[in-house]
C-alpha cells in the first residue's frame, strides 16, 4: 500500500504531496491529537487513583492551615516528606450556631504513603484528640459513601424523636442500642 518512495518523501517532507499522502498526513495529525487526549485522560485517572480522601470529624474549621493541623494531630514524624493536603472543606453540613462543635473537615491527601502513615499512626494512638476534641479518620468518604449515609437521615430523625441512642459507623452502618439488645442496620 505504501511505497518506499512515498514513505521516504513523507519522512523528509520533500516533494509535492499527492492526494493519498495528504490523506495520510491528516490521519497522522488526527492520531497524534487522539494520543494527546488519551495521555491526558491517563494522567487524570492515575492522579485520582493516588489521591485519598479522609474525613476528620469534629476538627476545627481553620482550613488555611490544614496541613499543619493534620501533621500536629498525628505527629510530625508520621508523614513522609511529600505530605500535601490537596483540598479541605467543611461543606457537608450547615454552619452550626456559636458554641456548637465544629463541622466535619473533609481533606484529600495527594500521596498514598501519607494516607497509609496517617492510618497507621491513628491505630497506634487509638484515640486522636485535637484541642480537646476526639477526631475520627475515615479512609474513603467519597460521594457514593455520602449518598448511602444520607439514606439514614429519616431513620435517625425517628430515633431522636423516640430518644433512642444511635451511632453511625463507617462507612454506612447505623447502630442502635435498646434495653433488650443492640442491632446493626446497613
Automatic annotation (TrEMBL):
InterPro entries xref list: L1_C (IPR042566), Transposase_22 (IPR004244)
Keywords of the record: Coiled coil
Residues in coiled coil: 42-76
PANTHER family: L1 TRANSPOSABLE ELEMENT-RELATED
Name this protein carries in UniProt: Uncharacterized protein
Species for this entry: Pleurodeles waltl (Iberian ribbed newt)
